[in-house]
Design a protein that fits this description.
The chain is α/β, with parallel strands linked by helices. It folds into five domains: about 200 residues, P-loop containing nucleotide triphosphate hydrolases (Rossmann fold); about 180 residues, Rossmann fold, CATH 3.40.50; about 100 residues, Winged helix-like DNA-binding domain superfamily/Winged helix DNA-binding domain (Arc Repressor Mutant, subunit A, Orthogonal Bundle), CATH 1.10.10; about 90 residues, DNA polymerase, domain 1 (Orthogonal Bundle), CATH 1.10.150; about 100 residues, Arc Repressor Mutant, subunit A (Orthogonal Bundle), CATH 1.10.10.1390. It contains 36 helices and 17 strands. It has a seven-stranded parallel β-sheet, with helices on both faces. It has a six-stranded parallel β-sheet with strand order 8-13-12-9-11-10. Helix 19 crosses helix 21 and helix 32 runs parallel beside helix 36. The chain is globular. Its cofactor is Mg(2+); Zn(2+). This is DNA helicase RecQ. It catalyses: Couples ATP hydrolysis with the unwinding of duplex DNA by translocating in the 3'-5' direction. Its EC number is 5.6.2.4. Belongs to the helicase family. RecQ subfamily.
Length: about 725
């Protein structure tokens, strides 16, 4: 049956190959065996039950927690001519009865229900006469009290499951810690069933945490480089949503608010405007987004801290579902942490214990200096296999100029010592800058030897230094009062035995494309922008005529391929990602006509040869191109200039080329280093001693005397030399 599944994948959905684990899960389901599937948002969970639903004779039930999610999925399935319905309170009595009648006549392959609807006696009676082949539980983490979206009704689903003894049970979720996974298996009695665990790494998401400093300005700066892009901004409170919405509207942004204080009608309308590309930005509380399957969300910004890592992961998961590069920015301040702590303190018992643990894990993620994917994936029980991801602020910050901050650190630490380690960074900054603030004078801190010795820096810089010293473990922060206290490491700095190096300014919130080449394909880099915009406009017209979201017709990735390959006939169009036979018949004529006209008017040649043997170009092909060109004699600097990227990107591609089993010429690598031969030998000796994989260890072993950009070159040199 898996051959039939592959045919459905290609003919109906327009995809050439399955994503990781999809084929394994579908095989399991087609063999009538239960399964638990943990797959990240955007990983393709839906196809794991939609394809079997097409191949089974009977009905597939999908339990889903949100009306908007059901509606969205059913709209998409109808575009593929798949008979799917939902039963929920959004239907009029006439529509509800019509769907029930279709179900009774056997005209339906897929039925979407909320758990509350499924538990109703009349629903169970209705389904008792149906042949149910597949019982699917989406968002299965709602079963667990340890999950972030616990729904008591979900815990009763096992009782209903006994109504369908011959049905395969498939439970799916994107966010489940090991503890939640075990909870799901216990409650649904899936103990002997297979668990399919995909990686939690969403490679196309750029993760950044920035110190919150004038957040409205930071937001405006962030949006300035993202004109016309679709995005979500999350705020802690309704009041904050409204205030930010007003500010953004005033600046001319296409934006709407979303929170529980708005009427149900207004919320639904604003969500619909966003889904249908009538507005670009939604400013929302966490109430927004669980039912959103919009693939072209290009950014998710957290104006305030989320409550826990699961919420954060689920919310950033709304970005980049189409696999294209998307940005996730979180503005962080200690006052946000105190707000969350305040609400935790109102809880009791087990609920409080769970919330405290969630906050502690979140703080580890926010305050880490290592690759952000490491603590994020560790939380979900997965070990990130690489030293660095190249797609988070920490991995990129090591390429910035590392400053020697020893003198300022000694001033800061001395001031903490003279104020008896009882005050926070703001007060220390005031003392160092000679402030006449009431608190400074009342405590007699204007009489200290450290008073007014720090005027070379603004107050904000001293505060940033305080945060950096906490991150680097020179200081700890008292959780209750916020006072800064010494660690053993701090004494070595004060005594002049250790220097402090670091990147002070983490407040830049504009994540520029120039920082690193992070796009995943030649298509994404080089599609024709003008044609793409014309195709988008036509797609929007068609969607509005049908009353559906534009992405239901074709996602942006499909339009990008059309604007790259310029298909000229039906055969060419069927080779495009996301164009199956059903959609080709529905929309092919219109889009082909536009593409032909555009090509004729602009004298554009179709890439027909590459289209007929089309494979999606991945970063893998980029590393092969660079590796081969490098071995043929091109320098690293030349490759960086030719591809329009930084040297660090070329180094990363060459490293991948090497790790794939290829050789690299070492003399070309050495030429990229500006270190003296003596210093290069010193680095090589350290790498012999501690290994070359963990650059942070090498950096510290060299007393921070060699910057990370040079260490990357030497790491590649070391790996290339030791391969031979």
């Amino acid at each position: 049956m898996i051959k039939e599944a592959r045919k459905k994948l290609n003919n109906v959905f327009g995809y050439e190959t399955f994503r990781p684990l999809q084929e394994d899960v579908i095989t399991q389901v087609l063999n009538k065996e239960d399964a638990l599937v943990i797959m990240p948002t955007g990983g393709g969970k839906s196809l794991c039950y939609q394809i079997p639903a097409l191949l089974f004779d009977g009905l597939t039930i999908v339990v889903s927690p949100l009306i908007s999610l059901m509606k969205d999925q059913v709209e998409q399935l109808r575009q593929f001519n798949i008979p799917a319905i939902y039963l929920n309170s959004s239907l009029t009595p006439e529509q509800y009865q019509d769907n029930v009648a279709r179900l009774k006549r056997g005209e339906v392959k897929m039925l979407y229900l909320a758990p509350e609807t499924l538990l109703m006696p009349q629903t169970r009676e209705l389904l008792s006469n149906q042949q149910v082949d597949l019982f699917t539980i989406d968002e299965a983490h709602c079963i667990s009290e340890w999950g972030h979206d616990f729904r008591p009704e979900y815990r009763q689903l096992n009782e209903v499951r006994s109504d369908f003894p011959d049905a395969t049970c498939l439970a799916l979720t994107a966010t489940a810690t090991p503890r939640v996974r075990q909870d799901i298996k216990d409650i649904l009695e899936l103990d002997d069933s297979e668990t399919f665990l995909a990686s939690f790494d969403r490679k196309n998401l750029f993760l950044k945490v920035a110190d919150k400093d004038n957040p409205v300005e930071q937001t405006l700066d962030f949006l300035y480089t993202r004109k016309k892009q679709s995005g979500i901004i999350y705020c802690f409170s309704r009041k904050q949503v409204e205030e930010l919405y007003v500010e953004l509207k005033k600046e001319g942004h296409s934006v709407k608010p979303y929170h529980a204080g708005l009427s149900k009608k207004v919320r639904a309308r604003n969500q619909e405007l966003f889904i249908r590309d009538d507005i670009s930005i939604i400013v929302a509380t966490i109430a927004f987004g669980m039912g959103i399957d919009k693939p072209n969300v290009r950014f998710v910004m957290h104006y305030d801290m989320p409550k826990n890592i699961e919420s954060y992961y689920q919310q950033i998961g709304r970005a980049g579902r189409d696999g294209l590069r998307s940005d996730c920015l979180l503005l962080y301040s200690r006052s946000d942490k105190q707000k969350i702590q305040y609400f935790i303190n109102q809880k009791e018992g087990q609920e409080k214990k769970v919330a405290e643990k969630h906050l502690k894990d979140l703080m580890k993620f926010l305050e880490t200096d290592e690759c952000r994917r490491k603590p994020l994936m560790k939380y979900f029980g997965e070990t990130y296999p690489n030293d660095e991801c190249g797609m988070c602020d920490n991995c990129l910050s090591v390429d910035a100029e590392v400053e020697d901050l020893t003198v300022q650190s000694q001033k800061f630490l001395s001031c903490i010592a003279r104020t008896d380690q009882k005050f926070g960074a703001y007060h220390i900054a005031d003392v160092l800058r000679g402030s006449k603030a009431k608190k400074v004078i009342e405590n007699g801190h204007d009489q200290l030897s450290t008073y007014d010795i720090g005027n070379e820096w603004a107050k904000e810089q001293w505060i940033l230094l305080g945060r950096m010293l906490v991150r680097q473990n020179y200081l700890s922060r008292d959780e209750k009062h916020g006072s800064l206290q010494f660690t053993e490491q701090a004494k070595a700095v004060l005594n002049g035995q250790e220097n402090v190096f670091g990147v002070l300014d983490r407040t830049d919130t504009v994540i520029g494309d120039e920082a690193i080449d992070r796009t995943s394909s030649d298509v994404e880099n080089n599609y024709d922008r003008d044609l793409f915009e014309q195709l988008r406009e036509r797609r929007k017209e068609m969607a509005d005529q049908q009353g559906i979201p534009p992405y239901v017709i074709f996602p942006d990735t499909t339009l990008m391929e059309m604007a790259y390959y310029f298909p000229r006939d039906k055969e060419d169009l069927l080779a495009i990602y996301g164009v199956g036979s059903v959609k080709q018949k529905k929309y092919g004529k219109d889009f082909l006509k536009m593409i032909r006209t555009y090509c004729d008017e602009n004298e554009v040649e179709s890439r027909r040869k590459s289209l007929k043997k089309k494979k999606k170009k991945s970063s893998g092909e980029t590393f092969e191109q660079m590796g081969e060109a490098f071995n043929e004699g091109q320098s690293i600097d030349h490759l960086a200039e030719e591809h329009g990227v930084k040297q660090v990107t070329v180094i990363k591609h060459l490293k991948t080329y090497l790790e794939e089993g290829n050789d690299l010429r070492t003399e070309g690598i050495a030429a990229a280093s500006s270190l003296s031969v003596r210093k290069r030998d010193e680095v090589m000796e350290v790498m012999d001693d501690v290994g070359a994989r963990m650059l942070r260890i090498v950096y510290n072993k060299l007393d921070k005397s060699v910057g990370y950009s040079e260490l990357r070159v030497m790491q590649l040199y070391y790996m290339a030399q030791n391969k031979k």
